[in-house]
Input
Amino acid sequence: MTPLAVYEDFARAYVTEVDAAVRRMLTRGAEAAALLQKAAADSSQVRAFGNGGSSAIVRALLQLHAHAGLVVSDSMMSPAAMAYGAQRQDYRTVFARSLAREIDQVGLVVVASVSGRSANICEAVRLCGESGVPVLALVGGDGGQMELVDGMVWATGTTDQQISEDAMLTALTLAATTALNPHDVSLPASQEQHLHALAAVDTALLAGFLKEASEAVADAIRCRRRIYVLCPDGGPLSLAGEHFAHNLSWDAPLGVKDVQPPCVISDPSLADMSAIYNDHPDPAHGVRYQLSGASPKDVVFLLAYDSAGRTAQEAISAADAADTRLFLLHRDGPGPTAGTVQRRFVLPAADNFALAALVQSVAHLICRSTRAALAADYGGPSTVLSSRDLMAQDLAPLRELSDTVKSL
Output
């Protein structure tokens, strides 16, 4: 089997598993939507908690808040505040302490944890049980690892980290969109729209994109070049970009022999963005500034809603001027007219929220094949990866800092 055929089989197998997990979850989609709808009807707060990539999943609710008016509190603290608190108090209670301050105003708590056993998530769930606050818990496996007093355990039916995360993001977004906009589209209709988009992903074209992208990233990690993950237009897609950058920084290389942490540059932090936009209220300015420091053969992933939009074109021009290896993931537009994009992949027609879920799946594919490529370096030239090998590259290696966190 040719390398390209291996990547195509891998992409097809992965997308098929995501489709199956989404279908399993959405058999209970109406129950989840009812919990969110009740919180909205009661004009109470919704709080959302997750660690790592799960934080980007639950914060998709913040994007929906902007569209529908549901009061969703951002439960992820700044890195500075979290590090400060972790040094002085037990990290396992960080979410519960944040929640306790206004528990009487909270109508629903949404948590996401593939293991269902993260200590800080479990502490928040325990507090909700004591306070009579319902919980919508998105977890991996069969869901039996988490017990709730009130609410719903929404299980993915798989223990695969990334497939679970993709299913969680898709199911939660569809349920919340339906709950907050019940007159726009029904859950069955939005479900079918998304599953149709998922099925429309061209895995033959994706294979070429995936092969070149993962080889470029692996080369950048080996040679200590920078990797950029940018979504200058913001919106739901920026959360998928944040998740992508997190996977590239931590999950893809962690635990692979002799591989050092890569230099991954993502969208500006809140501090950076607020400073930049105060003087230059233009998304293109931030990405131009970031890419002004890029060097030849650095890798750039550009996530765009419309590749023909001015902001995307500005980013393409800046990446091209620096002679980077540019990979474009987008939905609309005829393709780039500025610069030269080495490889681009056009995603099926989907709304902005569904597009973010599709991009997250592609990002997970790239990270898993990158990890396999890095690990294969130490298997010698005879190492030949199969699609089964790539499917087995679950990005959930043993966290090296686990013992440190437990001792705080």
Observations:
- The mean pLDDT is 85.
- The first strand starts at residue 45 and ends at 50.
